[in-house]
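Input record (Table S2, row 171):
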Amino acid sequence: MSLLKIVNYPAPVLLTVGKPVETFDEKLKTFVSDMFETMYEAKGVGLAAPQVAVSSRIFVMDCSGGEDETQKIAAVNPEVVYSEGEQTGDEGCLSFPGIYVPITRNHRAILRAQDVTGNWFELDATELTARCILHETDHCDGIVFLDRMSILKREMAKRKIKRLQKTGKWD
Ligand SMILES: [Zn+2]
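Output record (zinc ion complex):
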């Protein structure tokens, strides 16, 4: 296993729609293991392939931070097939280090995806798990959480990013 390099906004790969995965081989399994390792190392609860500069529809997540094996999810070719309700909570993103902004998303989301062997599964989730599914599926569609912020919060976040870029704390 090896750690992957996480790219920061505005890397073009983050703003590009990921390609569907068609081959379910050992290479994919290794890549997904590396993504989990990279996510845990970075203390994140979710990581999508575009964040490690791979333009594919893949994400991993674990809202328990490694505490609960049942929360460990790898989603290939993810799709949110149903969502409802509303929740607002602070959100961060490994491609936006140091930026935490309240974001309103659906309270419930049903994810349909394939596992690393190609089997389809569905996950009906609420609260933090739903938030994470929505955030990571967005990454696979080239959407970053900046796009989900209110205009005011987005401008504040962009100003903070500019400041961090100037001081060399953002690459
Ligand atoms: Zn993210």
